[in-house]
Amino acid sequence: MPAYRSLLFVPGSRADRFGKAVAAGADAVIIDLEDAVLPEDKTRARSETLTWVSNWRGAGLGIRINSPRTAAGCADIAAIAGSAGSQRADFFVVPKVETPVDLEIVREAIGRKVNLIAIIESGRALANVHAIAGEANGGLLFGGVDYSAATGADLNDWDALLTARGLIAAAAGAAGVPAYDVPALAAGDTEALTATTRKAKALGFSGRACIHPDQVPAVNAAFTPSPDELTEARALVEAAQTAGTGAFLHKGKMIDRPVVLAAERLLSRHRSS
Fold this sequence. Notes:
Layout: E1 6-11, H1 18-22, E2 28-32, H2 42-54, E3 61-64, H3 71-81, E4 91-94, H4 100-110, E5 116-120, H5 123-127, H6 129-135, E6 139-142, H7 144-151, H8 162-175, E7 179-181, H9 190-203, E8 207-210, H10 216-222, H11 227-243, E9 247-250, E10 253-256, H12 257-272
Helix pairs in contact: 2-3, 4-6, 6-8, 9-10, 11-12
């Protein structure tokens, strides 16, 4: 499964917006059956979403189900398992994951190989994040809003959530899956969005969730390597191939294998984006 720069959420109760979301330029679109849908609308949203997805012929489409610990989540899973058209979705997003068992239940109940992105939204989830990452073959998404509500941390204070972000990025890196940052709630503040997205990238995040189409360009730009970064990465890889040793001197700096691997990863993600 690729690492996406941007994941744009669209309410599952608004089928009229699905096409517009796809056209917004995000690397992936997530149809949301959970928080964005009122309880009385969940049955209709589930049906309309699966009907629309069955006719989907593109790439980069996911569905956020309700928690498998809820009746609505169980209904989502049963409907997906019984829908041949749901196989056109590239991945499923599982909210409020507390342990790896939550993901095992979803995967086994659907009954086929699926890509799952786990949302880390509580202190218990953070305590189990390495084990969860091992089952989340699609990656980890930081559910910062619910995490803040559960722990009392200030969502608007970057430092208050730094430990949580760092642990999520580390667990994703150890498992070899992408980490995605929480969406910014202030849709119109592009300057703040760009600044915090760059910080997330520096921590090791691969992309960020978006809740409004206007956020997509800034997020994509922040996670897109600059021409200078690409040039330097190619030069590092070529120098490593020429050197043929574990460590070598490049532009006055001693370079070893981890630095070369980071350059290779950057180039690989650029090619797949």
